[in-house]
Amino acid sequence: MDVFIFLLFIHQLFYCTNAQFSTITDILENTNKRLPNQNTSNPLGVRLGFYLESIGNFRAEEMSFDVDMYAYMSWTDWRLRHNFPDYVLVNDDNIRQQMWLPDLYFANAIKSKAHDVTVPNFNMFIANDGTVAYSCRFTMQISCNLELQNYPMDVQTCGIQILSYAYIAKQVNVSWFDTSPIRFNPSIGLPEFNITAVTPSYCNGTYRYAVMSNRYKVDVFSCLLGDIHLARSIGYNLVQSFIPTGLIVMISWVSFWIDRRAVPARVTLSFTTLVSLTTLGNGLRFGLPQVSYAKAIDYWYGACMLFVFMALLEFAIINSYMRKAEKYGEMAKKFLQSRDDDEELFDRAVQQRKKPFVVYATDDGAAIFYNADKQKELERQKIAEYQQRRRRMSQYRLSVCENAYATMSKSFSRTALYIDKACRYGFPLIFVLFNLFYWWFYLCWCKSDPFCSAMF
């Protein structure tokens, strides 16, 4: 019994194969590569659909990406009608080349190729009423005009534009399938993007054709557009760009806690953070196209650079105040030393009164010894002169100037300390407020506002 069933199956298979081959032979006798309804006024309707197998290799600098896709087309060719009860499968490339196929092309494709491993990747099913279901596989490099104003919080729409190359819409009218014309593989994983939606639409297909030296025609060609909506994943840029630059800004605040008199340490820290941020900023722009507008990450980098530069400027102000404090402190010390010298002179004069004799030098160089009474009288005169000079100078010049310069020195030093203390808390507070505004603007408000998306 099993042998009988097996033989029956082989017979049916052989019969069907011969029947399909006979049907295909009959079809080829009636078909050619001309437009099926060339003699009618109604356009030939061609339905189109895609299945995106994979998307990847985004090149931001070139503004392009690669897509591997299956194209599905359907149209009716009355010359392909047959009496076979089921679909007729055509997978021979020689037979396909003898039949009319839609002359569709991808207008924004930079490179494209049809797969032929291990055989040409296509199939064609022909119904008995002449309806053709044609499928083939392509890999293309598609150009995509990236709008990078909100980079790296941007949302991109990359379209695949399809047109008929030779036939105007009055001859061949290409349209999308009614149900799910564009589908994609749910397992597609992109390193930078997430596919949010894939939508079919139509575009303006008005072009010149039949262009000659002094005349041309203008008409509408069927133009279809498959939009791939992509949202960039911020994780990579958060780890590689935002966090490192933010940490560099925070490191620059350490200078506010270093002693204001430690000039070498503060200079080294300020310039090191500035150079590190500049180097990192150059790396942020690597691999991005040279656009004429500022991107979101440019505003972030510019703000971080401003914070680091302001920290360096704060040190310059502090250093200026400290140099003034040292200057006035040195002047106060000089006046203090002058007063001490006068007091030392007074002490010497007092000590001289205790001596019984004093040596007085005459004009001719002779030494004369005076007795104690004459010595006391002389010392009283010197002391009186000294006291008068000290009252006049010390009271109005030495003490006043010394106190004034000492006060100014302390004032500049305290002002520098107050500026340091204010910056210790002011810089982090302003940076936190900037972060709140920055992330709210680009993640919340700007994405929901069309005007913002267009301007920024």
UniProtKB/TrEMBL annotation:
Q: Which residues form the signal peptide?
A: 1-19
Compartments, as annotated in UniProt? Cell membrane; Membrane
Its keywords, alphabetically, are: Cell membrane, Ion channel, Ion transport, Membrane, Signal, Transmembrane, Transmembrane helix, Transport
Transmembrane helix as UniProt keyword: yes
GO terms, molecular function: extracellular ligand-gated monoatomic ion channel activity; transmembrane signaling receptor activity
Listed InterPro entries: GABAA/Glycine_rcpt, Neur_chan_lig-bd, Neur_chan_lig-bd_sf, Neur_channel, Neuro-gated_channel_TM_sf, Neuro_actylchol_rec, Neurotrans-gated_channel_TM, Neurotransmitter_ion_chnl_CS
Return the similarity comment. Answer: Belongs to the ligand-gated ion channel (TC 1.A.9) family.
PANTHER family registered for this protein in UniProt: NEUROTRANSMITTER GATED ION CHANNEL (PTHR18945)
Q: What is this protein called?
A: Uncharacterized protein
